[in-house]
Structure formats: C-alpha cells, structure tokens
Amino acid sequence: MMGGDFAPLEAVKGLRLYLSEKADAVSLFLFGDKGQLTSLLAEHGIHSKQIQIIHAPEVIGMHEHPTKALKEKQQSSIAVGFYWLATGKIDAFISAGNTGAMLVGAMFSIKVIDGILRPAIASIIPKENGKTGVLLDVGLNADCKPENLSQFAVLGSLYAQYILGIEKPRIGLLNVGEEEGKGNLLAQASYPLLKQNSQLNFSGNIEGRDILLDRVDVMVCEGFTGNVVLKMAESIYDITKAKEIEHEFLDRFNFEYYGGTPVLGVAKPVIIGHGISQEKAFKNMIAVAVKMIETGLLTKIKASFTGHPNA
Amino acid sequence: MMGGDFAPLEAVKGLRLYLSEKADAVSLFLFGDKGQLTSLLAEHGIHSKQIQIIHAPEVIGMHEHPTKALKEKQQSSIAVGFYWLATGKIDAFISAGNTGAMLVGAMFSIKVIDGILRPAIASIIPKENGKTGVLLDVGLNADCKPENLSQFAVLGSLYAQYILGIEKPRIGLLNVGEEEGKGNLLAQASYPLLKQNSQLNFSGNIEGRDILLDRVDVMVCEGFTGNVVLKMAESIYDITKAKEIEHEFLDRFNFEYYGGTPVLGVAKPVIIGHGISQEKAFKNMIAVAVKMIETGLLTKIKASFTGHPNA
Fold this sequence. Notes:
alpha/beta, homodimer, two-stranded parallel sheet
C-alpha cells in the first residue's frame, strides 16, 4: 500500500474500485502503516470483510538502492509482503513501489522456477485493431542469450493464453527484417530455437512497424530493445494527452488499463506497478493477480518447464 | 530515377517540385531509361538546363540480392550512379531504390572514410516541441562495439550541426536508465567513451520516453534498436493516418518531410530514400544532398576523423 508516487491514497481508491466491480471471494491483505491505512479505508467507506491490514511501518523510497533497502528495512511493506508470499500466507503480491526492490524480492525471496534461466517482465501493448499483444522482456535482462529469448517466448505464450485468453498465441521475434537470417547475432541465433520449439506457434520475425499491428500476439526480444519500445509507447500517450489529441486508439496507450507488469518465471505471481499508478491501475493489478491465481498460470508454467503435462 | 515503388513518376514530380521552389545553381543528373525519362520530363513541363539524363537501361528490383544485382546489372541506374559518384562526375547520389544495393554501392564504390570503423545510417526523428533530432544507427550495424557508437555520435553531431543547423548538438546514449552504469554491456562500455570524447557535447543517457522529447539532439544506439524505433515511429504515422487522427505533431512522423536517410561515414554524400518515396520525399532528398555539398559536411567529417582541423 505504501508503494508508488501516490501511495497509499491511490492504492486505497483502487481497492475500492476493485471491490465495487468484482464480487470474487478474494482475500485482500494490505501491507503498510496500520494507522494510516485504517483511517484511509474508513474515509473511503471501505469496510469489506475481505480486507485485512498487515502492519509494515517502514517504507522503501523510490530511489533507494534495492538490495540494501530490502535488507535494512525488513519491516517495509515490500519486505513484509514478500515474506508473506514466500511463506504461503498470500498467493500473489502486488506493489507500485521501488521497481528494483520488487525485482530483487521476486528473484531472491520467491525464487526462479526450475529450468528457467532468467525471468522476464512482460508488458501489454495495444494493437491498432483493438486487440492486445504481449511484449517481453521489457527490462529485466538487458543482455540475453538465445536460450533466454526462447524461454521468454514460452512464458509470454502461456501468459497470452491463460491471462489474455488467446488460443494458440502467435509468437514473433522482434527483428530488423522479416526473413530468417536477418538481425543481430542474438536474433539470428534465437530464430531457429523459436522455430523448433514445439510449445510455440512461431510466426517468424516481426519488425518495428508490426509492434502496433495485429501480426502476432507475443513479441519477444531482449530487455534493452523491449524497454526502449515500451517507454516510447508510453511517451506517445503522455505526448498526445498533453497535446489534447483525442482518440480511442491513443487512450489504449494508457498503461493504467493493463494492470502492471508481471514478473514471469518466478515461482509465484508478482506484479510490479508503474510508480505513477493511480486508482485504475491498482484495480487492474488486483484483477490480473486474481486471474493468474484462478487460471493456475504458475502451475502451467512450471509444468511447461519441467516437461510434465499440466500437473 | 528508376528506384522506389513509384519510379520514375514520383522522382520526376519531386524534381519539378524542387526546381519550382529552389533556384540554386545545381546540376541534376538523372540516371535511368532515357526514352522514358525524356517523355516524362516533357509531359511534366520540365525543360530546365540544369538537368541532364544519363542513360541507364537496367533496373535493380526492390527484392533482388544487392551484391549479385549490382555486379550483374552494371547498366542499372544504381550502378551507373555510383560509378559517376566514384569518378567525381557528380558530387552526391540519391536513390529510393533497393536499399541493400544502395548500401553495398556506398560501402564498396565510394569507400569508408579513413579512421571510421563502420558507417551508419541516420534518421530524423520529430520532437514533440516542433524541433527535430537525429537517431543513428537505424539499421546498418545490427551488432556494434562501443567504439562504433562513439563514432556514430561524432557523425550524428556533425550532421546535426551542419545540416540541421544546431549549435553544439546535445548527444544522448539511448539506454534503459538515466544513470551512468545502466544498460546492457554495450551501453555500459559506450558511456565512458562518449563522456571523454572532447568532440562531443554529451548529455548522458536517454530512455525510450525521451526519444520524442527535446532532451537531446542526437540519439546514439546500435542499428538493431534504432531500426526498431524508427520503424515503430513510421508506423505511428501510418496508423494515425488510417484512423484519421489529425494533428500537426502526427504529420511530422511522415518520413517524406525528411528527405531520406544519409549514409554517414562514406567518403561522398549518399542518400537512400524509402521505397515508398513520393514527390515531396524526392524534393527533400535533393535539398539535403545540396546542403551536404554546400556545407562541406564530408570535409568536416574527414577532418574530424583524421584529427586535422577543418581542411
């Protein structure tokens, strides 16, 4: 509750929005300052029995060093949240707080799934025809090996299938040309791995011009290019809003619609919100976390990487 | 004249547009089918004494293999044009034809400037405040070394200074975070080279969200990320046009405004046009080529890389 530029107010408002729209039998555990949260909940008329506050008096600032802060502030909402997730007291953890601390917590408290070399973070990308795609990695791995990209494709495919409800998601390798053999050394070496992976519905290379088109459902790249693409897409929203260029298509570049960035490849659902998340983003992050639990996405991912059919 | 999807008609129209707007003492040599061009020029009322047609009966198709086509079709407009450029009969060469053939021609007929490890291709990127920036490399070098990026920065800086008229252009390294030390191995290793290069006004890292903002004038990256960014930017124009989202800012994503992509680092001015170039793009390519000649950009570049002051 204490993470993000508008914490805890927007988190509380997002919670209220979620409860007003959904009637799931979900238990919501709020990590943060108990006094502050209790009065904010009362102020916003939130009295749901689904809610329980877990006192976490410390806060990790947005610019603190992730590893150091997590170690020193064991009573922070992020540290306590990960402890609850690691010990099985909660099934998913969400925060719009310090991204580095969220990643370190996810990697070291929750652990990477057996068989996965590197987890990735995924982002939803709007398509011009109204559909949505998944882009990954968008920043966790600035340097990658071909095997990483092949695994990201599997993670993205399962996410698209179970969370976005896309049957047999089409996978594209983000590249600088359409033909096999194009690209930098990484893309050239990744193509055959994607092509021969029987878990994937591989559609070949896509180019920058295809990112916003409905050519494929899952777009795979290393975290450097993915991060640049994502931030550029986000800036299009900011710029067009500032210029009052109004259109439904441009509205869909508002990251708040997509409910944060899941960390794919760690053993439990972890969702990282944008620092500037507001009400709607918090509501959507809860919805995505619930869907990750309900669809058993993590079980599907584990099964996929151990080679066992869906356990 | 024979290059591009709408050749030679749009090239002829661009020529007419250029002549109607400019009164430079420029000599224009048109490479292509003499019969076809003679009647097209007459049809469009172009009788300028500045124009001379050089017969080149062969055409390299847009999908032909560049090296093979250049070798086999020595009477193609691209091959003849490069021969004229290499032998000093013309001072700059422009084509919207087969991009690969243009690059091969530039690298092997014209040669790379002494001291330059790899040439790059640069693109103009519109800034939200009405200014323009330069992004390079946008596709010639999918894999780069830090030394390449440092040289691209110098090439981009000189281009911004002499062609765009920007005093002391601000240079940014495209990266995934603002602080020094962020990024993939290439960006991490490139940062200190850019920082210590006394020819550069280095502003540090920029992120994807800064590409369309007026943070820096020259944005440097390897040709993989640059190509993805450029093609994504171009797609924004296509998509918003198709959706009839009208705004002056979006109009500026129309590549036709910017007159093609200069190949920077080769010994003479070479400009490659987009395959779908029309009238306006051809006119602007001529204007950029003239500016490259008039400002002595190539002399400045050569001086910069040999260490001698502007010769």
